[in-house]
Amino acid sequence: MEHIVVIGGGAAGMVAAGTAAKRGEHVILLEKNDTLGKKIYITGKGRCNLTNNKDIEELLNHVTRNKNFLYSAFYSFTNDDVINLMHEYGTPTKVERGDRVFPQSDKSSDVIKALKKFMLSHGVDIKLNAEVKEILIQNNEIKGVSLSDQTIISCKKVIIATGGMSYYTTGSTGDGYKFAKKLGHSIIPLRPGLVPLETEEAWVKELQGLSLRNISLKAIYKNKEIHTEFGEMIFTHYGVSGPVVLSMSNYINDYLKKGKIRVLLNLKPALDEDKLDQRIIRDFEKYSKKQFKNSLQDLLPSKLIPVIIGLSGIPENKYVNQITKDERKKLINLLTNLPMTISKMRPINEAIITSGGINVKEINPSTMESKKINGIYFAGEVVDIDALTGGYNLQIAFSTGYLAGMNV
Ligand SMILES: Cc1cc2nc3c(=O)[nH]c(=O)nc-3n(C[C@H](O)[C@H](O)[C@H](O)COP(=O)(O)OP(=O)(O)OC[C@H]3O[C@@H](n4cnc5c(N)ncnc54)[C@H](O)[C@@H]3O)c2cc1C
């Protein structure tokens, strides 16, 4: 019997291996680490946001690169299928804010356990500490794979599910890109995706540790509005991070290659200018006999007050009842359009996903098979597909893994 080799025991590889084995294939899964799913283990802050409960079209709307490529995969193995698989193999799930799905236990290890059970129940031969060095090809035909300990495993079909380039201690060191390149595939340049951003302004660093809720961020490149995001963010020693910033990074990474990006932080997106003005007038009436520096505590977190005062140009000791309408207008503008300059993204190793990867034009979207070499399949993050946070990236890994496993 011919073997099928799956390279990579992450989310995509485990689903691919289990699915192919369920069809009666003899599957060998090769994982270079001494455990399966090291990256899954750290997902969702150790809780693993394994998918999202929205309907499929909505899931697709959260894919920021090559969404059309994913239609077959997402409809072949849906979020319900992921949840059912978890339930079948002993990991019940729950739905949280934003339709995010987590294991009921809040333990990512339970997701790994379920995937391992799925594979073992269908007879996948799991080999740990098995690092693939090369895919062996002769006359355009797959002969097998060679491992770093010189072992050769012969096979006719290989699923490459080696992940991306970030958090490399989890095992994703970009090997799949090298294999694919050698097989004649083109690689869309690799960049960090869902990654914190570095800013130029000194005041940003003064706010280190401050997190803000219900804010919006608007990114602008050369007067062109690129994207706006609402939600939470946090200031860090290098710039900004948090959900809004990570999502924003997926929209601006192509522009950042060309130059700096201006982002405007709206601290009060729920209020239009008039309502915010009325709100400030009320506060100024309340604190009319106080100095400006002692009038903003109802409006802003205390850490932000000296920064806003400094940027407003209004003297901090000015009495509130002497602040002019023009000065108030300036303050409103600052609160709704606080500018920051994004100079670069943090390094790829700090990214949640790797943007770029195997060119989707060279992969059949209905089977995940290479259009260049028969018998080579791709699944998961190694492919040039990106999505936002919320369980979408693991759904991509599971769905593409399933499709590869069904067609291999
Ligand atoms: C901190 C963090 C949190 C995240 N949180 C979430 C979340 O909550 N929800 C979500 O949807 N996504 C999340 N992601 C993204 C998600 O983890 C990835 O998109 C997903 O794991 C990709 O799955 P994969 O199977 O393609 O790759 P991986 O999970 O990276 O698996 C690839 C496997 O291949 C193995 N491998 C690589 N090269 C070789 C080789 N030469 N030989 C043998 N084995 C090899 C690696 O050791 C690894 O085990 C998070 C990512 C990070 C970094």
Automatic annotation (TrEMBL):
<keyword id="KW-0285">Flavoprotein</keyword>
<dbReference type="InterPro" id="IPR023166">
    <property type="entry name" value="BaiN-like_dom_sf"/>
</dbReference>
<dbReference type="InterPro" id="IPR004792">
    <property type="entry name" value="BaiN-like"/>
</dbReference>
<dbReference type="InterPro" id="IPR036188">
    <property type="entry name" value="FAD/NAD-bd_sf"/>
</dbReference>
<feature type="domain" description="RsdA/BaiN/AoA(So)-like Rossmann fold-like">
    <location>
        <begin position="3"/>
        <end position="406"/>
    </location>
</feature>
<dbReference type="Pfam" id="PF03486">
    <property type="entry name" value="HI0933_like"/>
</dbReference>
<dbReference type="Pfam" id="PF22780">
    <property type="entry name" value="HI0933_like_1st"/>
</dbReference>
<dbReference type="InterPro" id="IPR057661">
    <property type="entry name" value="RsdA/BaiN/AoA(So)_Rossmann"/>
</dbReference>
<dbReference type="InterPro" id="IPR055178">
    <property type="entry name" value="RsdA/BaiN/AoA(So)-like_dom"/>
</dbReference>
<protein>
    <submittedName>
        <fullName>Uncharacterized protein</fullName>
    </submittedName>
</protein>
<keyword id="KW-0274">FAD</keyword>
<feature type="domain" description="RsdA/BaiN/AoA(So)-like insert">
    <location>
        <begin position="191"/>
        <end position="353"/>
    </location>
</feature>
